[in-house]
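Query form — protein Glucose-methanol-choline oxidoreductase N-terminal domain-containing protein

QUESTION: What is the three-dimensional structure of this chain?
INPUT:
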Amino acid sequence: MLLSGPITVSLATLASAHPGATVKRQVSQLRDSYDFVIVGGGTSGLTVADRLTEAFPNKTVLVVEYGDIEYGPGNFDPPPAVPASRWTVTSLPNPEVNNRTAGVAAGQVVGGSSVINGQFLDRGSRFDYDSWQELNGQGSGSTDINWNWENLFPYFKKSVTLTEPSAELAEEYGYTWDVSSYGDSTPVYATYPPFQWADQHIMWNAYKELGVQEPKECANGDKEGICWVPTTQHPVTALRSHSGLGHYAAVIDTRSNYDLLVKHQGVRVVYPHKPGEDSGAPIVEVRSLVDDVLFNVTANAEVIISAGAFHTPTVLMRSGIGPASVLESAGIPLVLDLPGVGSNFQDHTGPPVSWNLTKPGDFHPVRSAMQDPAFAADAAAGFNETPSRGPYTLALGNSAVYVSLPHLAPDNHETIIANIRAIAANDTLAASYLPPDHRTSAPMIAGYQAQLSALADLFANPQSPSLESPFAAGASAVAFQLHPLSRGTVRLDPADHLAQPILDARIATNPVDLDLHLAHVRFLRRAGATEALQRYGAVELRPGPGVGDADDEALRAFVRQSATLSFMHPCCTAAMMPEEKGGVVGPDLKVHGAGGRLRVVDMSVMPLVPGSHLMATAYAVGERAADLIIAEWSE
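ANSWER: The structure tokens for Glucose-methanol-choline oxidoreductase N-terminal domain-containing protein are given below.
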């Protein structure tokens, strides 16, 4: 799709043009009650709010958001770009990686993490989402609601409008895409930028030499290969496109039933009576961040928690819904004993591989050109032109390689997979890799074993990527481990229930994670011997010639010390799985045992992190959830 007409203005501009229309800042501005109350105005939450207010013009929706309306600069905008507000949660020390801590960011702003992320709009492979269905297809919580790729793909398409690059750009950079994998009706925009660094081709050609395929499109469920990935930006201005713009600012003129309460915290949900089939929707307790006043909001239909992987479990735990032992230690009366709340934490991690190019190349510009004041000034001027041009349109970059374990480790992938299956088959061994308070929990052990079996199938599939390495320039790579086996926790601070949660990421507590890291690093190191890098005199910097490729212990030491411990993809802490396998929500996203009027809609519901960045999946989950809610309340 190609856009014409007025250029999209910022969310802040639109909001200020309609003072009091929907933005609320104090309790006195609220209605007596709402049909739907959404706790969290992030990527998924605003998607749901948009669709519900559209489908039900006579029903009211309130979104309670901790942050405020802010301008969200792109991932790579000219200075002095000021990033939007964010949470930074620092993990406890991780013993298996030299007691290092992981710092994990999440958006604290209207639009959530879609306002602060790298704008990289990739999807997982079809097998990632098929595994969700596999994990939900058994048990008492199973329904006819299917979350496999076939059922989720239409929501991926619906969630974004793709603007195709011009024929000239496609020829210049080699862009390929399949427009049928995208939609054209939602004002969340994605495109391919009018700029690439001149040395971007080095790593692309290296992976080609290693035998990696080049699919035309990687967003259609078939993902292994070297891929072009769209950027979430306006196709004319190159300004960041995010949920706050596409699902709030773009629709407020026509939605008198859509209220947004900013600078307020959804503290907990309260059931006047014990939750059950006839208990109705819970009351939402809300706290003002301005004066610390607490008040209640009544939902006539249901409450949707969409506060993200860190804060959705804390809302539930403050409500008395969670692991009994954790709630007891925090002094919170137990309402529902769900040990999976705040459990099953996953994120992507991985070490770097890089080379020094000792022979100059015949390409310009490269990133170092930004150190030239004249070049940097022209780049800034180009970004502010209409249409925008130059390096500042690039955001994170647009290319990545995705490779399956059988293809990157043909000699030892079967051993790694056999080790995973052996853990899955042994109750005691599987339990030993879980957090201590889960090692005697039958549901948590059973759920972890089911996950390990599903992961072993993913690793054995030559079309299911195990490794991602995004690249935009030069001769460097980073080994994203797409399917971690270790499981962490997000817990309330028992000394201050309103403080940031305590994250125990428990990185590499399952030792097979390190085996996977080694396989990934060894594959990436092979790129250094390709003609694509050797023509420029590539000399390995990391891990470096002192770390032998056959020396497992030296490579493990390198991974432990150098791996990035979070690529900012926290998820899975209120997993969609049967209750008897440690699940928190069912396929309808309703909280087990909570009476049917309490749902979770955000990245905490994923049982397994997909092999992708999370934004596209967050939009799709929001779209699917909205349809489920609309179908139920239209009856």
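ADDITIONAL NOTE: Residues 1-20 have pLDDT under 50 and may be disordered.
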